[in-house]
Amino acid sequence: MHQPLLDDSTTNTPSPEHRFFTYVTPVIALFGVVGNVVSLVVFLSKNMRKLSASMYLIALAISDIMSLLLYVLPEWLKHGEPLLSGYSWPLLLQQNGVCKSVLYIQYIARFLSSWFVVFFTIERFIGVCFPLRRKNLCDSRSAARVILGAVVVASAGCVFKPVLSGSFPTINGAMLCTSDKDHQYFSFILDSIFGVIITFIPFIIITVFNVFIIRRLVVRNKRSRKIRVVTTESIIRLEFTFILLAMSICFVALNLPYFAVWCKRYWKIRQMFNMHMMSPTTLQNHANSISDLDDTLHVTRTIFYTNFCINFFLYSVTGAYFRKELKHLFCKHDKNIRLINAHRCSAYNTRVHSMASPQTSIL
């Protein structure tokens, strides 16, 4: 959710909350990109990519990388980097064409990051609660169609953001990528709807389906104390369920605080448009309230950004098979390096031996 109307230039006395945002956000972005790339490679491995759940997690990793590079990083360049350098330098991001394009991709990536978690939840719900229908509803082809459909819907639904936004001069003359002044209220309404769609609705869906999943797992555990045939695929699917539960808890915990503070702050700003109807005391109280919300927003925004980098750690903690594939990936890499070095060493020894051999000696 974009923050219009304010000149985001750095203040002379940045708050501790602002410093927290400035120093922690680049770490989140770095670990997030690396973690999502590694997760992408693991889920694309031979044993994992054939499962429909992996398709959703592959798509989620890609959307999270896009969010980190085109949403988290630009926001840090706008709100955090000036605190380090003393001046605002990402002028390229404020150019009208770049501004509209980046905003458009930001909204698409954030929409997809939220709803891929929802689709992953639904896939696990069907797999756990309706196992007999899983093969018909939860195959790789169906997952690919759902992912493609989500991309199409996101691309069409997020068009409003670049249309209602652009680069406009602030009070001090600098250009700022924000909502069009003539459509700020309409943009606020659509931004609020967008926030509900990527936060509140997914929260409800994820919570409801997780309740059914947990209930089903408890019932199944009570009924089935007998020895069952356990396959590698069934183990992976069970671990996907545990991964989902961890992701769901983190999704709610990391998203809702930022959404609540953003809505309250934006509503306070909207009230100040009627400043001619306010007394000086009321106006000052509103200004102080917005300043306090700005500080809170720095903290909740940073926590929210963690949503795009935490999945790799959740996979590693809750997924034994994920750790196995990850270890196999690095061991295979080390083995390949050893084979290459051994081959080079063997070739070198052969050349040395042939040079020293009497049969090949010229002198």
TrEMBL record:
<feature type="transmembrane region" description="Helical">
    <location>
        <begin position="56"/>
        <end position="73"/>
    </location>
</feature>
<feature type="transmembrane region" description="Helical">
    <location>
        <begin position="102"/>
        <end position="122"/>
    </location>
</feature>
<feature type="transmembrane region" description="Helical">
    <location>
        <begin position="303"/>
        <end position="322"/>
    </location>
</feature>
<feature type="transmembrane region" description="Helical">
    <location>
        <begin position="20"/>
        <end position="44"/>
    </location>
</feature>
<feature type="domain" description="G-protein coupled receptors family 1 profile">
    <location>
        <begin position="35"/>
        <end position="315"/>
    </location>
</feature>
<comment type="similarity">
    <text>Belongs to the G-protein coupled receptor 1 family.</text>
</comment>
<keyword id="KW-1133">Transmembrane helix</keyword>
<dbReference type="Pfam" id="PF00001">
    <property type="entry name" value="7tm_1"/>
</dbReference>
<feature type="transmembrane region" description="Helical">
    <location>
        <begin position="184"/>
        <end position="214"/>
    </location>
</feature>
<keyword id="KW-0472">Membrane</keyword>
<protein>
    <recommendedName>
        <fullName>G-protein coupled receptors family 1 profile domain-containing protein</fullName>
    </recommendedName>
</protein>
<feature type="transmembrane region" description="Helical">
    <location>
        <begin position="143"/>
        <end position="164"/>
    </location>
</feature>
<keyword id="KW-0675">Receptor</keyword>
<keyword id="KW-0807">Transducer</keyword>
<keyword id="KW-0812">Transmembrane</keyword>
<feature type="transmembrane region" description="Helical">
    <location>
        <begin position="235"/>
        <end position="260"/>
    </location>
</feature>
<dbReference type="GO" id="GO:0005886">
    <property type="term" value="C:plasma membrane"/>
</dbReference>
<dbReference type="InterPro" id="IPR000276">
    <property type="entry name" value="GPCR_Rhodpsn"/>
</dbReference>
<dbReference type="InterPro" id="IPR017452">
    <property type="entry name" value="GPCR_Rhodpsn_7TM"/>
</dbReference>
<dbReference type="GO" id="GO:0004930">
    <property type="term" value="F:G protein-coupled receptor activity"/>
</dbReference>
<keyword id="KW-0297">G-protein coupled receptor</keyword>
